[in-house]
Design goal:
The protein is α/β, with parallel strands linked by helices. It contains 12 helices and 9 strands. It has an 8-stranded parallel beta barrel with strand order 1-2-3-4-5-6-7-8. The N terminus is likely disordered.
């Protein structure tokens, strides 16, 4: 069985790959990046939040800086979403395999801003909130970056974020109903208050609030989520609500430790279609894309197609002084027969196309499948090690001091 292996194999895996690459990324270059100086005033000038904390501004600058050198690898739920349970609560499948955590750690507001979260110590949803908070604090202590999506439950029955789980009569009403002046706007504001409360509670040991990348309304250009646009909301409605969301968190609820990420799925084919629902440069810090579908078109054609879309994002990020990222991607283990998946499908994407991408985030592992293999999936694990050992692929330890500005 895949999970029953001698403990010696686990120890050898960690020891063999704990040293990382020979030359870690160096983010001490104090030169301007994309016309942005390495100081808080210069960075705040291009951020959504002109009052962003110094650490949040430094994170933005370092994301741009390191995008010129390589790409940081991340994973959704690396500590709670596990293919194996070895190593305890602060272990990740990626660390089991290569000796290092992913640099980007994905979390979710699903359980936090949830009608079933009572805040009681014995409440399962509240326990998940505390777990996520602890994971973000641990990630920060390890030099990692936390990014949060939000599988927000629809406003009428609050039972599903998927259209397939909704009352059909509410599908086209749900998103417009949370706009200002509409029937569920007060409910939406209460959701944002919970989001703000959580974000503001993320403090390090010195009392500084921890920066987070917030990625609301992801994959909106598909048809599976109730916030999809233009399927269930007009582009104008989507932009209007995004602008309200940012303004309310920033200006009314005083949240200043957030970088805002705009991340449609892979439906767009041009700059114009990517920007169809774009709320404006004053409301976005990171330009992203979630892409799983295009890889299914074959190794070479899939990589070429994904790269062409990432080139659109990368070019926009440079021209608009933003950060570009592949905010979700991967190939689930149970759905692929591609040999050497990581070196044949993903490595060329990050090394051959001259893209400036800050990070790429694999989706979460589960007990029945994986996006990042463990040492017990031997062939895939060996290929993943080759992938991560490339000098352009950054994991924990390859990029340092992400929360401070480089100095001469």
């Amino acid at each position: 069985m895949r999970h029953i292996q001698p403990i010696l194999l686990l120890l050898l895996s960690i020891v063999s790959f704990a040293c990382g690459k020979d030359e870690p990324a160096n983010n001490t270059t104090p030169n301007p990046i994309n016309g942005i100086n390495p100081d808080v005033a210069s960075v705040r000038n291009v951020l959504t939040d002109k009052s962003a904390t110094t650490q949040t501004a430094a994170l933005f600058y370092n994301l741009k800086l390191n995008a010129q050198k390589g790409i940081m690898i991340g994973q959704q739920d690396p500590f709670a979403g596990r293919y194996v349970s070895d190593g305890g609560s602060n272990m990740s499948d990626m660390k089991l395999t290569i000796g290092r955590h992913p640099l980007i750690v994905g979390e979710d507001f699903l359980f936090i801003a949830n009608k079933n979260n009572t805040g009681a110590s014995d409440n399962w949803y509240y326990q998940q909130e505390l777990r996520i908070k602890n994971e973000i604090k641990y990630s920060y202590s390890q030099g990692l970056v936390s990014t949060m999506c939000w599988h927000m439950l629809e406003p009428y029955e609050q039972n599903s974020f998927y259209v397939s789980g909704m009352n059909a009569d509410n599908v086209t009403k749900a998103f417009p109903s949370i706009l200002e002046g509409r029937e569920n706007h007060t409910w939406y504001k209460s959701q944002l208050k919970k989001v703000a409360q959580f974000l503001s509670s993320l403090k390090d040991n010195s009392g500084n609030v921890i920066p987070v990348i917030f990625r609301p309304f992801h994959e909106f250009d598909g048809t599976w989520f109730w916030w999809s646009a233009p399927a269930y909301a007009t582009p104008t409605q989507f932009k209007r609500n995004w602008q309200f969301t940012v303004s309310y968190l920033r200006d009314s609820l005083n949240v200043h430790n957030v970088l805002y990420a705009f991340s449609p799925g892979s439906e767009f084919t041009s700059t114009d279609t990517y920007l169809q629902c774009y709320p404006g440069d004053d409301y976005v810090d990171i330009l992203g894309m979630d892409n799983y579908q295009d890889y299914s078109k074959g190794v070479q054609s899939g990589v070429t197609l994904v790269a062409s879309k990432l080139k659109i994002i990368s070019d926009l990020a440079v021209s608009r002084k933003k950060v570009a990222a592949l905010t979700e991607f991967g190939y689930i283990s149970t759905n692929t027969t591609i040999s050497n998946l990581y070196t044949q499908c993903f490595l060329p994407l990050f090394t051959q196309y001259k893209l400036q991408l800050a990070y790429g985030m694999f989706w979460a592992n589960t007990s029945s499948n994986y996006y990042i293999p463990t040492p017990y999936s031997s062939a895939a694990a060996a290929d993943f090690r080759t992938f991560t050992n490339n000098s352009a692929i950054f994991e924990q330890g390859d990029v340092k001091s992400l929360y401070s500005f480089p100095t001469p």
